[in-house]
From TrEMBL, chains A, B:
HTH hxlR-type domain ranges (all copies): 9-107
Protein name per its UniProtKB record: Helix-turn-helix domain-containing protein
DNA-binding keyword on record: yes
Phylogenetic lineage: Bacteria, Bacillati, Actinomycetota, Actinomycetes, Kitasatosporales
Keyword Transcription regulation on entry: yes
Pfam family, one: HxlR
The species this protein was found in: Streptomyces litchfieldiae
Length: 111, 111
DNA sequence: CCGGATCCTACAAGATACTG
DNA sequence: CAGTATCTTGTAGGATCCGG
């Protein structure tokens, strides 16, 4: 895309960090509580392990989530939002609030 | 993706309506003021007319923007947010506010 | 249980050229 | 000016198999 991110354009940065349809939904789950890998899979019907890993890794790199592996049998891994990630709560709430006011995504044509 | 959109999940609906990297940026420009087609192109360096038209049409269908064509010479077309689209201001502001608090998208690794 | 590796699909987006 | 048409590309995501 090569958008130079204008001075005041924090929006572009947000989009870079939460790109793709799943990213925001994953954050949404983690806002409720820390989750294990499998728990996230169950909370996000249809997501593939590949995608989930991919998004989670990206979040780690950006300091949005922490990954804690417990060397137990069976293995256990917890994903938790960092304070930075917690800050996304306001954004997600704003999204949800707005979307609730939308008549209907598909029926909007008839409006 | 086929995500069934859980009961409380307005977030998923938001993501459906503002999908793709450019969608949100276009809304961001229109939040400042109504824009003509070419004005949007200039405000969004790198966007192709194809993509711009595509996103704009989708916004129209969803009732987020209105398209007003003036039968003049030269032709003039104005894109303006509907009240529904205006409601996105809070969401975009939340995004910007959060992103500003992020150390740096790329340097976050070193944090 | 967690998740990396590989290959493939779907869709947003880019490039370019052309029209009312 | 404001698009449209066609073709290609880039990347998120899906499917499947397998290793720690």
């Amino acid at each position: 895309m090569s958008n130079p991110c204008l001075p005041e354009c924090g929006v572009a940065r947000f989009l870079t960090l939460l790109n793709g349809p799943w990213a925001t939904l994953i954050v949404r789950e983690l806002l409720k509580a820390p989750h294990r890998f499998t728990e996230l899979r169950e909370a996000l019907p249809g997501i593939s392990p590949h995608t989930l890993t991919s998004r989670l890794r990206q979040f780690e790199r950006h300091g949005i989530v922490t990954r804690t592996a417990y060397a137990e049998i069976p293995p256990r891994v917890e994903y938790e939002l960092t304070p930075l990630g917690e800050g996304l709560r306001d954004v997600l709430e704003a999204m949800g609030t707005w979307a609730m006011a939308v008549p209907d995504p598909d029926a909007a044509v008839t409006a």
